[in-house]
């Protein structure tokens, strides 16, 4: 780690002296340019070259608060010093975390109060998600998380954002910590009486008797709570998050049962997101959440959210062949490549910072006209709802004043009409309308990038989100018929950094968490399905072998050592246990691994036990895995005889939708080397042929040499009943 300065400022060895937390961009050897103030910055700037504790933690070291990293030792220190612990959990991409960093934790008086009376601990939620999950329950979700803890880890006080000073009934951090410090000295028992332990969902109350009807009941409850007007599960919500595991479960249920309600629900949600302000209508990609109408977002963009959204749209496109879902998929993956792509991987987030909220993403009518010119300006304004400020976006009530979609005096873009309406407006064909839409997007993005400072980017190479991004790139490449080779190329470059020992970051370091292993396993298996490279399958088997050491009686614990937490709730990203189960079940389907299948059958009743106390939206990922386990996989193997026919068969198998299928392409000359005896025993004929089976450890009963035969077999097996026994 090194520090560097601008102008004639002195050089400091210790990072604690750094004061410029908001920028770090190197320009030439030994110099640093402040992205906000350039070389005019009068504060010391910081270059972080290897951030072992996470960027959010490291930026905190520039503050006067004496932060310590999370460890068991801090609670022992607190006990020896007879002080409570002040815990701050946050992320560099969160606007409210940045607000506290710039306006609260920089205050010298507050720092003195904290340093004298507390052991202060700061956690980067991207570095330590297992710690974050434990304390999220204390505040009910959101960032930052601020807690006062006893030396034995019980929570005394918990809150999200707090200003420095309170006002009008609103608590301020200064007054809060002063009061806690006073009570700790003078009336400690009153504090300890209110202290509570956090019950993390790890041990199940009792095993659950597994049945296919459990999945059906979960889906029924989800549909009963579905908002058919605005999309998403939950009526009357103030904020909406994408629900990737819910969408997948509903689509899977609809495909198996033939009940179209599931696919209708998932389609409504994904279309509302696609048309709403939660999607960057110019540059692609999704913001983390939005208001009840999917219109005004929180402006941060996370790699994990976009990877999961891409998987959602890929599945929905494969099932429906709807062009709008394909467009959303293309926009999302292209954004991930262009805006988050770094050498050997992906950046994990774009922050929501800026002088004004959302200034990089929002527009005025004059800016749209300047970006598009006189011809397209009017079309662009109507298309994206860029109305004169305080005048209605509703074209039928143009005089009604409104602030809908306006943030800090600027307008959030959203799609106002579909491609057929655009074609009608322009008097052109649908094909030409798509081209015009793309032209408008490109011109507005070029204008935005030239005129505005881009959001801050965290390039810490965390393995878990990078592997989700790899999986989404490969699935997108597959369902679009191998049309975007750049997606495949990027995915394989990132995968090349993996070893059997998965680390928290792609560039090495400490042992990975369960989510790192699970995401890596899924990425490797998807790459094997797409490429047929047996080395990838061998590496996936090795990763799964190490993942097995995370397994306990009721699931996969978050880490091998440390706090024995076990995360089973989607939040809203897929839970670590769901990710791990999804990968293990896929591997079982390919290898017929009886030991793994028996292990999963043993832990699922315990893992699923007690889920009834949670809303279905938080456990949809686990119910999807129960559905896979109970119904079994469709295993599709193309034996490639080198006659060119295998290309069509392989592509057809990958492009077709099925809620749980695995696809292999095995060259005839290496068929005898396959680790699965059932695959090794397939006929060695003189032409390429596809073989299909259904269920765990079953025989290959069907075969075809035509792509349309592949689709027919998958459709037939989709509706056949199969129960695990």
Write out key terms for the chains shown.
four-stranded mixed sheet, globular, Ssp411-like_TRX, Glutaredoxin, disordered N terminus, alpha+beta, 725 residues
Question: What does this entry look like structurally?
Answer:
By secondary structure, the protein is an alpha+beta fold. Among the domains are: 1-49, no CATH class; 50-194, Glutaredoxin; 365-441, no CATH class; 632-725, 3-Layer(aba) Sandwich (Glutaredoxin), CATH 3.40.30. The strands form 9 sheets. The protein has a 4-stranded mixed sheet, sandwiched between helices. A 4-stranded mixed sheet has the order 22-21-23-24, sandwiched between helices. The longest helix has 22 residues, at 430-451. The model is unreliable at 1-50, 395-401 and 721-725 (pLDDT under 50).
Summarize the structure.
The protein has 725 residues and is an alpha+beta fold. It contains 25 helices and 24 strands. This is Spermatogenesis-associated protein 20-like TRX domain-containing protein.
């Amino acid at each position: 780690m090194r520090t560097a300065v601008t102008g004639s400022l002195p050089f400091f060895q210790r990072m604690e002296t750094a004061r410029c937390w908001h920028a770090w961009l190197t320009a030439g050897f030994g110099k640093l340019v402040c992205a906000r103030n350039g070389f005019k910055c009068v504060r010391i700037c910081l270059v972080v070259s290897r951030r072992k504790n996470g960027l959010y933690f490291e930026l905190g070291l520039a503050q006067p608060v004496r932060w310590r990293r999370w460890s068991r030792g801090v609670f022992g220190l607190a006990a020896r010093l007879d002080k409570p612990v002040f815990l701050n959990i946050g992320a560099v991409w969160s606007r409210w975390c940045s607000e506290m960093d710039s306006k609260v934790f920089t205050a010298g008086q507050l720092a003195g109060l904290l340093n004298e009376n507390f052991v202060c601990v700061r956690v980067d939620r991207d570095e330590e998600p297992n710690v974050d999950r434990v304390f999220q329950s204390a505040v009910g979700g959101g960032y930052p998380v601020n807690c006062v803890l006893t030396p034995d880890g019980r929570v005394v006080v918990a809150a999200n954002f707090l200003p420095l000073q309170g006002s009008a009934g609103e608590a301020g951090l200064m007054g809060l910590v002063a009061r806690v410090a006073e009570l700790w000295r003078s009336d400690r028992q009153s504090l300890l009486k209110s202290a509570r332990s956090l019950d993390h969902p790890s041990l199940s109350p009792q095993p659950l008797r597994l049945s296919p009807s459990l999945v059906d009941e979960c889906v029924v409850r989800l549909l009963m709570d579905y908002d058919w007007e605005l999309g998403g599960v939950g009526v009357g919500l103030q904020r909406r998050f994408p629900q990737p595991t819910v969408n997948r479960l509903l689509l899977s249920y609809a495909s198996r049962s033939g009940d179209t309600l599931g696919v209708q629900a998932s389609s409504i949600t994904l279309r509302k997101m696609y048309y709403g302000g939660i999607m960057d209508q110019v540059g692609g990609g999704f913001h983390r959440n939005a208001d009840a109408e999917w219109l005004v977002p929180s402006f941060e963009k996370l790699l994990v959210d976009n990877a999961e959204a891409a998987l959602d749209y890929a599945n929905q496109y494969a099932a429906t062949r709807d062009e709008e879902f394909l467009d959303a998929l293309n926009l999302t993956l292209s954004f991930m490549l262009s805006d988050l792509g770094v050498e050997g991987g992906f950046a994990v987030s774009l922050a929501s910072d800026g002088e004004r909220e959302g200034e990089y993403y929002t527009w005025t009518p004059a800016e749209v006209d300047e970006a598009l010119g006189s011809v397209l300006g009017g079309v662009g304004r109507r298309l994206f709802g860029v109305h004169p400020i305080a005048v209605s976006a509703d074209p039928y009530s143009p005089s009604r004043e409104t602030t809908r979609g306006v943030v800090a005096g600027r307008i959030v873009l959203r799609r106002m009409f579909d491609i057929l309406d655009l074609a009608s407006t322009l008097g052109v064909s649908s094909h030409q309308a798509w081209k015009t839409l793309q032209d408008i997007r490109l011109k507005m993005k070029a204008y935005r990038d030239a005129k505005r400072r881009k959001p801050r980017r965290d390039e810490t190479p965390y393995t878990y989100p990078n592997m989700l991004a790899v999986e989404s790139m490969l699935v997108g490449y597959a369902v679009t018929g191998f049309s975007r080779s750049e997606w495949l190329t990027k995915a394989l470059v990132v995968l090349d950094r993996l070893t059997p020992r998965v680390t928290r970051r792609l560039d090495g370091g400490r042992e990975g968490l369960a989510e790192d292993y699970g995401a890596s396993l899924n990425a490797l298996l998807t790459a094997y399905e797409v490429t047929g490279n047996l080395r990838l399958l061998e590496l996936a088997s090795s990763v799964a072998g190490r993942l097995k050491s995370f397994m306990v009686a009721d699931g996969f614990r978050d880490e091998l050592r440390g706090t024995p937490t076990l995360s089973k709730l989607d939040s809203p990203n897929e839970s670590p246990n769901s990710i791990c189960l999804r990968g293990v079940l896929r591997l079982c389907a390919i290898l017929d691994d009886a030991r793994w299948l028996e292990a999963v059958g043993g832990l699922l009743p315990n893992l699923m036990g007690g889920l009834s106390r949670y809303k279905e939206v938080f456990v949809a990922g686990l119910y999807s895995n129960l559905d896979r386990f109970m119904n079994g996989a469709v295993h599709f193997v193309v034996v490639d005889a080198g006659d060119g026919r295998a290309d069509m068969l392989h592509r057809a198998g990958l492009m077709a939708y099925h809620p749980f299928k695995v696809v292999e392409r095995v060259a005839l000359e290496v068929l005898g080397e396959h680790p699965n005896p059932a695959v090794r025993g397939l006929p060695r004929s003189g032409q390429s042929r596809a073989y299909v089976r259904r269920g765990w450890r079953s025989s290959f009963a069907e075969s075809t040499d035509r792509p349309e035969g592949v689709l027919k077999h998958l459709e037939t097996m989709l509706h056949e009943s199969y129960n695990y026994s």
